């Protein structure tokens, strides 16, 4: 094993340091427990800085960064081995334990899980997503951290699960992002590709399409998604027009105003507030809220309270519009929505009622959006004119 120390003597620039930490907080990393065992004893630490080095060396190599004050650091150096346990998204408790958050509950951090020895002797969580058993081949001290490079001796891979992710200073899990959902496709170069925000589309787009196709034979390609996916589609040229909310849209997206939707309070028919015709935001803060956790809907709903210096009791976060309606129908809380479905029943048959928000509540502008400078197909203009007429 080779190594050298690079330890800076000067005082770091505090502003640059904070900016660096803030920037790095947006980098999504897997959560790993790095363990070791041998002549120096057993130790482990939670680490997010882990990456591959090379798959084409005599044996694959990876590196981890461990703070020099971590109790596991000198043990790894003396034992000459470490195991990288890449955790599943249901194993954040193990991460918290090895990060030192449960010192009173566990005198020995290893008591929080079951372990099995790897070939080097380093402990492996019995059922991580992946475990890399490594022989230490290089160690460098750079600033406050040791950079350990390990030569992989053995690999354990589970047959289920997804990785635990750390980003924006919180745990998360991976969500597969498929291409924007396509309901109908056309091979025609003159096809009109229309996107719609997923909470608006089902309630207005079928009628728009029905009216449009009475007098126009243009092939239509219909897509739906959240704002981020629609904006990406517009920028990439996968979407010509997008029906969406005009909330914090970027400067390169042009819009045609359609209508201002009035947000409303959604309640179960037997909710204690359902009998009150005029509810205040202050009254709502005394009850649990089911938040439609899809952007920009979530930020919009929360901003309504923030404008009055109030904080709602968000008990449930859910990205699905129909799931939110079902949870409200079950009596789990109220919600604030803008899209008005045709039915006053939730998907599973619960009766729902709508109550208005205070009259001075900020409206939710609905627009037809397109990319600035985009060459739109011939059918785009008549389609937008039809939308303007129907929304009136």
Automatic annotation (TrEMBL):
InterPro entries per the UniProt record, alphabetical: Flavin_Rdtase-like_dom, LysR_subst-bd, Split_barrel_FMN-bd
Range of residues in the leader sequence: none
Swiss-Prot/TrEMBL keywords: DNA-binding, Transcription, Transcription regulation
Presence of the UniProt keyword Signal in the record: no
Family annotation (Gene3D superfamilies): Electron Transport, Fmn-binding Protein, Chain A, Periplasmic binding protein-like II
One Pfam family here: LysR_substrate
The Flavin reductase like domain, residue ranges: 24-173
UniProt record similarity statement: Belongs to the LysR transcriptional regulatory family.
The protein's name: Flavin reductase like domain-containing protein
